[in-house]
User: Which sequence fits this backbone?
């Protein structure tokens, strides 16, 4: 199946060329997608993930065909 | 206020051209300051009085037609607390002072250091080593000496926060510590006050406006008990344009909240990435 992926800020470098239609196995989870994009483990905790316009905290959430996934890292500077 | 005071203000009014090319009566800062000194009334009260008389203090003339004189009165009689006077807080303070928010509470325990100079608008080579609140208060009074400033050179904690922000109509989070942001959010919730929060790193930022009962910072940072002290800004720093633009958005949120006008950034997070020219309001609900 395919999902669309949009990454922001320092995650932009992990954006694949085929981000508009990124292939993942049927029933794959967010965490599978994050690993497939090569986003380093050490920053997984700070990820803020939206799927189809809603925030998703559980990275074990299963994705569905044509889901729209957006991710950024929460920042704290003032 | 005595009618002869109204008469004094009226006598000093002159007519100028408003932004919409209509002619409107204005009064200058110097004239209001002179009456204030003469009668022993705070200048801010005279500015409010003038606005009630339909005479706009000239310093606010370029606010007019976006704001009404009644809106300007509302700002002058409002109180905002800005916590953290770094890259965000300095510019938020500048925006609110210039807009004419009548009372500002400013809180920061720190002093200016060289590494602040790239983005902290009130820092300069001349004031390195000086307390940020002292410099910020001076800056506000250089802009508008009628405004009231409560300045606290203290570190905000769960113990002192409710006292320091007392009386504020809106609380503005410009902090650089994630756990302290949570402390402030709890205080805002308890005080039943809107809370405007922003954070910056490199060329990116996010801004949220949180009303009591709204989803809060947990959405971004997770469990407050497990929140890190800092985010990726420790790795990629903060560019001046990011800090100044994001602070301007925070200032705009505060002004909208105080005036009860426009749409605050509630129920979502405004994600900004200047590298990609991306401004996206992401809603929390599906």
Assistant:
């Amino acid at each position: 199946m395919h999902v669309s992926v949009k990454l922001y800020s320092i995650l932009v470098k992990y954006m694949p060329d085929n981000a508009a239609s990124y292939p993942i196995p049927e029933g794959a989870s967010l965490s599978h997608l994050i690993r497939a994009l090569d986003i380093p483990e050490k920053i997984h905790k700070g990820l803020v993930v939206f799927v189809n316009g809603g925030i998703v905290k559980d990275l074990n959430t299963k994705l569905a065909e044509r889901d729209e996934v957006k991710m950024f890292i929460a920042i704290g500077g003032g | 206020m005595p009618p002869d005071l109204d008469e004094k203000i009226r006598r000093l009014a002159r007519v100028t051209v408003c932004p919409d090319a209509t002619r409107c009566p204005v009064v200058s800062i110097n004239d209001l300051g002179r009456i204030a000194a003469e009668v022993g009334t705070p200048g801010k009260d005279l500015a409010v009085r003038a606005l009630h008389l339909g005479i706009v203090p000239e310093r606010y003339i370029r606010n007019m037609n976006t704001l009404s004189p009644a809106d300007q009165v509302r700002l002058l009689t409002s109180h905002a607390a800005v916590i953290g006077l770094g890259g965000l807080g300095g510019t938020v303070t500048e925006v609110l002072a210039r807009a004419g928010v009548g009372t500002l509470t400013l809180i920061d325990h720190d002093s200016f250091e060289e590494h602040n100079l790239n983005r902290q608008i009130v820092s300069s080579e001349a004031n390195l080593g000086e307390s940020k609140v002292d410099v910020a208060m001076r800056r506000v009074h250089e802009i508008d000496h009628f405004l009231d400033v409560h300045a606290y050179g203290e570190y905000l904690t769960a113990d002192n926060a409710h006292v320091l922000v007392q009386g504020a109509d809106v609380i503005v989070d410009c902090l650089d510590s994630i756990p302290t942001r949570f402390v402030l959010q709890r205080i805002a919730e308890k005080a039943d006050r809107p809370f405007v929060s922003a954070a910056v790193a490199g060329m990116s930022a996010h801004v949220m406006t949180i009303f009591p009962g709204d989803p809060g910072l947990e959405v971004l940072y997770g469990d407050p008990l497990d929140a890190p002290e800092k985010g990726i800004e420790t790795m990629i720093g903060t560019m001046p344009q990011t800090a100044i633009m994001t602070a301007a958005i925070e200032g705009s949120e505060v002004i909208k909240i105080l005036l009860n006008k426009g749409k605050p950034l509630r129920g979502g997070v405004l994600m900004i990435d200047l590298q990609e020219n991306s401004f996206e309001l992401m809603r929390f609900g599906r």
User: Anything to note?
Assistant: The two ends of chain A are 41 Å apart (CA to CA). The interface with chain B takes residues 8-10, 12, 43, 45-46, 48, 50, 52-55, 57, 70, 72-78 of chain A (CB under 8 Å). The CA atoms of residues 35 and 41 of chain A lie 8 Å apart.
